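> call design_seq(struct)
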């Protein structure tokens, strides 16, 4: 890994790929972070612009940007840090595509050259307890997706709701930079998910001329210590 300063609140950066299918030219850099070990000077020492908020928000932001910087360094040779755009989305350097996600003490970033990948979306989520998944299901799933849950036991329903949430977040992150239009959980559906960690999603609305309703995209997912990690990647 790079010799740039690593704060005590972050574990050594890792390039382990936990998802089922490795993507050519795509870097996944991750770390574990502990807000309790964040130091007031860590942003300055890391040469990253600080972000406002409580220690958790600051630590997850710093961890995510450190992963993104390392991924950009590997892809482009330039250790740049994505700025925050007016739409709150990361601003990636010219010629680079990427995505950042963080949650429950884990942060990671996908980075690749634009010549190989048009869009990348990464998301990490804590698995929902059955009772909470039941409360949230109608907000996350389409009517057809809800019907497909009916014959599953509560634990499997909660897992499917968690996975649908994560994959739709990854889908948004991959597509938003291409269409510059916000869309929501009911604007896409999870068609298939398999035990090998492969998934298929479909858009239910027109987002752009080259992304009409009915467009299908592939994703993948894996479980990591009680978390769900998902990815949607759009080849160039």
């Amino acid at each position: 890994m790079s010799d740039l300063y690593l704060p005590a609140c972050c574990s050594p950066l890792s390039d382990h790929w936990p998802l089922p299918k490795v993507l050519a030219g795509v870097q996944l850099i991750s770390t574990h972070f502990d807000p309790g070990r964040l130091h007031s000077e860590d942003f300055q020492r890391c040469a990253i612009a600080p972000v406002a908020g409580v220690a958790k928000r600051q630590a997850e932001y710093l961890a995510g940007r450190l992963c993104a910087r390392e991924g950009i360094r590997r892809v482009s040779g330039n250790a740049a840090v994505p700025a925050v755009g007016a739409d709150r989305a990361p601003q990636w350097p010219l010629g680079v595509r990427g995505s950042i996600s963080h949650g429950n003490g884990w942060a990671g970033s996908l980075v690749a050259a634009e010549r190989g990948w048009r869009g990348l979306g990464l998301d990490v989520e804590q698995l929902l307890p059955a009772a909470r998944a039941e409360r949230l299901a109608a907000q996350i799933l389409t009517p057809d997706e809800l019907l497909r849950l009916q014959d599953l036991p509560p634990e499997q329903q909660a897992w499917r709701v968690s996975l649908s949430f994560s994959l739709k977040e990854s889908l948004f992150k991959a597509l938003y930079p291409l269409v510059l239009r916000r869309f929501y959980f009911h604007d896409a559906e999870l068609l298939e998910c398999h035990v090998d960690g492969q998934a298929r999603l479909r858009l239910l609305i027109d987002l752009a001329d080259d992304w009409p309703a009915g467009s299908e995209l592939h994703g993948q997912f894996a479980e990591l210590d009680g978390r769900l990690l998902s990815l949607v990647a759009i080849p160039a």
